Amino acid sequence: MSEPIRLQKALAQAGVASRRAGEQLIDEGRVEVNGNVVTEQGTRVDPARDVIKVDGRRVPPPTTHVYLVANKPVGMVSTMDDPQGRPTLRDLLGARDDRGLFHVGRLDAATEGLILLTNDGEFAQRMTHPSYEVVKTYVAQVEGGVEQSTLRRLRAGVVLDDGPITPDSVRLIQRAGSRTLLEVTLHSGRNRIVRRMFEAVGHPVVRLTRTAIGPVRVAGLRPGQVRELSGDERGDLFGLVGL
Q1: Is the dihedral angle over the CA atoms 133, 236, 103, 100 positive or is it negative?
Q2: What are the C-alpha distances in Å from 7 to residues 25, 30, 52, 63, 239?
């Protein structure tokens, strides 16, 4: 167990606010520790063990773990090594020390977009466990013009060979010629679930991109690029999975 430190120092070390600004946040009742609002200056906390929140947002604890966001290109497999010699997630790391990194969930080789890499096993396990229902967002280009009746059917849920699937939302973005572009959010991690859902309603997927996992978005990250999770993103994800 680490040595307890003053709450305002913990906020400063986490990059949330300077010590003086942290004191103001405490005075204003905007800081919680383990579910309790703290207004007393000088309260001591253990940042590695106590759950600290500012305005309801989890302050990420200090860590030696690595948390990366990658934009996986089409044709790359979601593994760190491949006996068939196909491109892997390790190829995205370049000169970066992989430090025992592994992927959180998978994308099939034909799907591009956001995937997380970490060496934090507890975080990875919770992020992929169905009980935490972390929402993923996809943009799908499908064959044919998707009609309103089909959208209603998708929103109501469809039955697949491994059980029913009901997305959190399906939004029409654009119909263009013989193709339709849609945004889908769902919390299921079942294999090829978006592709199978659209196949079930007669509109096979032509192109599929995962654009977000929870609050973490792929925007600004070109295919093949990798970046670290920001402190806010890490805090938000930790909050979602109860870390």
Answers
A1: negative
A2: 11, 12, 9, 17, 19
C-alpha angle with apex 113: 109 to 118, nearest 5 degrees? 90
Do 223 and 207 belong together in one domain? Answer: no
Is the pTM higher than 0.85? The answer reads no
- Determine the 3-state secondary structure of 62 from DSSP: coil
| Residue among 55, 108, 162, 236 flagged as catalytic | 108
- Give tens-digit pLDDT for 36-62: 898 888 888 888 788 888 888 888 777
Residues 78 and 115 in one domain: yes
Measure the CA–CA gap between 115 and 103, rounded to whole angstroms.
7
Residue with tokens 């990366």: 68
Please say if 236 is a catalytic residue.
no
